[in-house]
Write a sequence for this structure.
């Protein structure tokens, strides 16, 4: 039996790499070549720790060739999507259900044949595992977990440095797999989206906020602190720019429930850093979902202790912009912290506008600039 199953796995590798139908299956083959297949009798079906794939030989031999391809690619996608690093303190069973829904829709759209007991719903197509988990967690009923394709959390035993190194390794593998897949044929559309999300997750959103809020024009120059770039590169003693203030800053915090406490905490830290470094005249924070829920104004030198979220309904930023206009609120720049899950945007504003999206899949808005927060 051991020889038979190894032959079956080898044939699966060939089918995926050759990709006769030109559906981008070579991408999955490239990922799977990096993940050793290890036979284990104490594994009932097939599972992964994000690095290796463990399989029960007897169960695996019951799969058709098409099902073998699907289940192996399912395990490979757990690594691509870093599910073993993203579970955190979530319920492991519900996290596995959520990740199964996320992966299986991708593989089905790639033209693969899912085993009959696999988890799939159109409702969850295009959604991240975190979003699916949140939806399932708020539901009165919970689907039965699938008995194959489990992912085990690996981050609890890892340091932050080890997690970062693992993430960088996965990104490198995905980049290589993308290139190899392009050489063979086309790349699945969902994989293209995943690549976009990976690129967006590397954006230094804090520097974007500082540029938008601080503006590009200096108010004055000073020789107290020389321009380090000119001094280092050209040995020229040039003055550095001096900005005494960045005016009045408005901040919208989306309180619909889509922005996590962790994301708000990081945003809070950045807002306080801006308040200290750039010395705005004021920072006015608007809390709102589909309505203005609360407003807090901080003067120069004030510390923003916390982001007091209230709300929980749908999301519509227009009441915030309407309030600013109707009440003649002075705004020199505006930062919106949201998941971008809405369709209404102002047609025009008279100040720099930055959307800080917690959703890596968000589309470019029709107005303002967008950056992404990934914590």
């Amino acid at each position: 039996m051991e020889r038979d199953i190894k032959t079956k796995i080898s044939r699966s590798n060939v089918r995926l790499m050759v990709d006769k139908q030109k559906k981008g299956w070579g991408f999955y083959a490239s990922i799977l070549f990096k993940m050793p297949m290890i036979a284990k009798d104490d594994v009932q079906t097939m599972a992964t720790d994000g690095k290796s794939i463990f399989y029960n030989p007897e169960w695996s031999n019951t799969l058709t060739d098409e099902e073998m391809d699907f289940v192996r690619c399912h395990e490979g996608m757990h690594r691509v999507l870093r599910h073993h690093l993203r579970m955190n303190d979530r319920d492991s069973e519900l996290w596995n259900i959520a990740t199964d829904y996320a992966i299986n829709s991708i593989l089905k759209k790639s033209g693969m044949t899912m085993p009959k007991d696999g988890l799939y719903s159109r409702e969850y197509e295009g959604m991240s595992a975190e979003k699916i988990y949140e939806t399932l967690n708020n539901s009165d009923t919970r689907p039965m977990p699938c008995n194959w394709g489990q992912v085990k959390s690996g981050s609890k035993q890892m340091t932050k440095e080890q997690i970062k190194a693992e993430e960088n390794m996965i990104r490198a593998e995905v980049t290589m797999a993308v290139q190899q897949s392009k050489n063979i044929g086309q790349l699945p559309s969902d994989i293209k989206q995943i690549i976009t999300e990976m690129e967006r997750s590397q954006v230094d959103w804090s520097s974007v906020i500082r540029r938008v809020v601080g503006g590009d024009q200096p108010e004055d120059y000073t020789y107290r602190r020389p321009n380090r770039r000119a001094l280092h590169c050209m040995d020229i003693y040039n003055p550095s720019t001096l900005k005494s203030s960045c005016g009045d800053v408005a901040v919208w915090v989306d309180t619909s429930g889509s922005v996590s406490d962790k994301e708000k905490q990081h945003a809070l830290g950045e807002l306080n850093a801006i308040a200290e470094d750039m010395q705005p005249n004021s920072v006015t924070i608007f809390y709102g979902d589909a309505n203005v829920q609360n407003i807090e104004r901080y003067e120069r030198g004030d510390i923003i202790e916390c982001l007091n979220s209230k709300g929980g309904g749908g999301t519509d930023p227009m009441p915030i912009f309407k309030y600013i206009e109707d009440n003649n609120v002075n705004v020199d720049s505006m930062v919106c912290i949201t998941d971008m899950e809405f369709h209404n945007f102002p047609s025009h504003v008279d100040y720099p506008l930055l959307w800080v999206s917690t959703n890596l899949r968000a589309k470019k808005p029709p107005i303002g600039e967008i950056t992404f927060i990934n914590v």
